[in-house]
């Protein structure tokens, strides 16, 4: 590929809101361009990287015996109503109507579509197990799209679904996906950890694991042991840390936390809510989540529940209130909304100062027996079980082996494997006939990889202040040939010869044939991050070149032939 005709240009400046290094670098290097918040075009260089990641994902999925298909992004709302998720999924689900006024959604995930597909195709145990996957654009109207491809509203996901006849079968399917994921992230050159994402999964059989790319920008905290292989998502890890009493962030015992008040998803302030309830803002201590007229409201009630419920009903003009589960609120409010944010997630929160002060950094989570601690406006908080309230702390003894110490890392969720069981097969009627002719629900698992998120995650892990450093397996090109002066015939001839020979060897080569100053060319090359660079300069007449390794920026002057062998 000739760089003179490469579409997309490098930029010196990027918008100030590009906070993440990966976001800035990918914009500057001309890998992506934003169309709208969380919605990006992949320019040719970015698309090449994405296709390489896809290729690795495909190879490993196929090797694991999964079969690829492609499902529609546009899904009838009926399907989502049938599974019961239409109402609970909340504003992240992009909803639309066709010209006949029929309701649709743009797929944020495909459990509904795949389960109905399999329901219609398979009715006998003889046709199971089966694992199906696709690589497809997903849509999620994230409340806070940010960090470029890390949290997009339109993004590329690999999603796979397994269907088994037994839990042992599911375990095997899960295990084979888990291993495929490990190979995929290894091959991509990523530093990652698979962590337990189960509440209280300790010792037990993990029903879900997250694959975390280690990076400071990550929104999750991983706790892992220095001695054994214990590793978990911190929010999930809290329930395995055995503690006897509830204490606040200053270590003072709080015992039973009295009850509870509210916050509405339209971000009414704590003061307004307190006014509804006739209490002082500083008396607000704990959240409960109610649904009023299908609108979730996180309710903070102090003292007498029932009295406060009535006040709340009146204040909201609601007929009735129904206690909702955490998932409902999480979906409906999206994160982060006041402290009615999703349970179990680390999110920046925006609570009124008053709440923090009065609650000494402790507030209710939207889940029975859970509290949030370290609640400081604009900072991350932690979820802790009331009974085990003092969260795992860095340096604590490992709850599993009791020998090592706990360490913290920040992580980006790049993959997620999940044992679903019969949740969808029951609601959507995906049944098969067993050998005795009896109908049984299929036992499902689902497995996601954020394909486009990987691009950013690797850039986060692998860059320096000059640009991106691509691992060879996913680099847009393997070799960057740079004739320093295209006016010098010896240089252009040798550069072209190298280009032809490398290409003939099956390598992907970019040649900087532009009539630009050397400094401009080198800066762009550093930014692109292609693993090897062959600089063809003044020594070209003598058949010598400079071979530069992008990661170390180490240079060696060698003959063109030697350079060929070094790279091949
Ligand atoms: P997160 O916790 O980051 O919101 P999730 O748990 O909602 O992710 P899953 O439903 O598990 O995501 O989807 C499977 C994978 O898709 C995730 O592991 C992640 O890598 C990727 N993914 C999810 N949301 C996004 C997004 N908004 N932009 C890019 N990739 C995403
Ligand atoms: Mg999410
Ligand atoms: Mg997640
Ligand atoms: Mg997930």
UniProtKB/TrEMBL annotation:
Signal peptide residue numbers: none
Matching Pfam families: HGTP_anticodon, tRNA-synt_2b, tRNA_edit
Domain Aminoacyl-transfer RNA synthetases class-II family profile: residue ranges: 38-471
One Gene Ontology molecular-function label: transferase activity
BP GO terms, sorted: prolyl-tRNA aminoacylation
Keywords, ordered alphabetically: Aminoacyl-tRNA synthetase, ATP-binding, Cytoplasm, Ligase, Nucleotide-binding, Protein biosynthesis
EC number(s) per entry: 6.1.1.15
Lineage: superkingdom: Bacteria
Class of this enzyme: ligase
Catalysed reaction, written as an equation: tRNA(Pro) + L-proline + ATP = L-prolyl-tRNA(Pro) + AMP + diphosphate
Functional description taken from the UniProt entry: Catalyzes the attachment of proline to tRNA(Pro) in a two-step reaction: proline is first activated by ATP to form Pro-AMP and then transferred to the acceptor end of tRNA(Pro). As ProRS can inadvertently accommodate and process non-cognate amino acids such as alanine and cysteine, to avoid such errors it has two additional distinct editing activities against alanine. One activity is designated as 'pretransfer' editing and involves the tRNA(Pro)-independent hydrolysis of activated Ala-AMP.
Name of this protein: Proline--tRNA ligase
Organism annotation: Paenibacillus soyae
Source organism phylogeny: Bacteria, Bacillati, Bacillota, Bacilli, Bacillales
